[in-house]
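ARCHIVE RECORD
Type: protein–small molecule complex
Small molecule: iron/sulfur cluster
Source of inputs: curated submission
Record status: active
Notes field left blank by submitter.
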Amino acid sequence: MDLSRLAQLCDSCGEAPPVYRQVYSGVSLCGDCFKESIEKRVRRTISRYSLLRENDRILVAVSGGKDSLSLLKILAKIERDFPRASLVAVSIDEGIPGYRDEALQLAADFCRRLGVEHRVYSFEELFGVGLNDAIGKGLLSKLGMGACTVCGVWRRKALSVAARSLKATVVATAHTLDDIVQTYLMDVLRGEFPKAAIGLRREANGIIPRVAPLRQILEEEVVLYAYLNRIPFQETPCPNAKGSQRDIVRSFLAQFEAKYPGSLFTALRVIESKIEPRSGQLLPCEICGEPSSRNICRACEFERAFSDLLSLSGELVGADVSVDDV
Ligand code: SF4
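STRUCTURE (tokenized, with ligand):
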């Protein structure tokens, strides 16, 4: 951020020195007004897109990073105005020792501080093998898959399992504006136009809808929100992230947004205006019964492939799983 362009006093209260300039709107805000503006924008996003209902049981996916802990804090605040709504935080332990352990501890501590119930679901208990074990046993390389591909599909599945078992009516994820545009761009680079808007409530075929209340907030704004609120979050990136497709796209988009502020908002608006509503019916996966656009969903496909490889090598993996790859 270019501090020389900050106004002398906050444009909102006119009293305190600003800490942040929203380049895309030209407004400079002090710490308190900045925090308030983020919370207001999240409320506005929830209301504009009807993301949440007043009697929802909201599962908040909490990784222990800045985005998810900030989201939890904001939703816990909003929830106070809706006594019929409830929150439960869920962390997924992918089985990345050293990285995930610290994040799980931070998530647990922060939930305790906010008084929010916290549950952990692990790949190992759901799919029979943790991510690092699968990498170590050579399962991913034999199938030519990257860690993030398996991790992303299984994490979605794990959240679906958690949502069903905790009777959640909606799953809130902490995808920011940056994350969503990255995903759309990655779809395009892989030769596919996005088929559904990310993080907008979609009720269909027994799916527990997913919403992204931070979809209009920039990543850098979430970082500042977390710092200003003194939220302790995990700063170390996942060891598998470096060099991933998302990592490359993230770095490109961050540079582009820094040079041409407002580009991510424009990209989101333009891409989502062109998304055709998903055609074709979702059917239950033949193995797990979760709604899927394929006969066998991707999570079951991965689990079966790993199980076959382990059986061949004399080990068995065999959790009975279901999936949501839609
Ligand atoms: Fe999973 Fe990849 Fe994210 Fe690491 S970077 S947590 S492997 S999706």
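CURATOR ANNOTATION: The longest helix spans residues 147-165.
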